[in-house]
Amino acid sequence: MSRDYVEEVEGMYRIKGSRVSLDSIVYAYWNGQTAESIGQSFPTLVLEQIYGAITYYLANRGMIDTYLERRRNEYEAKRQASRDQDPMFYKKWADTRRKIEPTSR
Fold first, then answer.
1. Main-chain phi, psi angles of 40, to 5 degrees
2. Exposure letters 21-44 (e unless 16+ CB within 10 A, then b)
3. Residue 9 burial by CB count (10 A; 0-12/13-18/19+): exposed, middle or buried?
4. Of 29, 21, 23, which is closest to residue 51 (Cα–Cα)?
5. Tell me: the pLDDT tens digits for 37-88?
6. Cβ distance 20 to 42 under 8 Å?
7. What is the pLDDT of residue 78?
8. Would you say domain 6-100 falls under CATH 1.10.10.10?
9. E-assigned strand segments in 1-105
10. Most buried pick, 12, 24, 48, 96, via CB within 10 A?
11. pTM of the model
């Protein structure tokens, strides 16, 4: 009996029946988290969905890796466009962060 755990919605992969992105599960998996620990971060998912998502990723690794790279590039392009639009804001933000972060000794 085959079960579908992942669906594509508007160009994004999600865990079927949820709003959780496959991206989130894959990144947690890449970081060495177990399905059980991933489940603690996403309590709306059952363990079967998490294992199903990981299995889907492993069965479609090339396609999903390409998808994730494209999404990462889109994010970086939007991030850079935002920085280019208001560079003074980001300079002030960086200066403030440096002031409040503890210094390493």
1. -65, -30
2. bbbbbbebbeeebebeebbeebee
3. exposed
4. 29
5. 999 999 999 999 999 999 999 999 999 999 999 999 999 999 999 888 988 8
6. yes
7. 92
8. yes
9. 6-9, 12-15
10. 24
11. 0.76
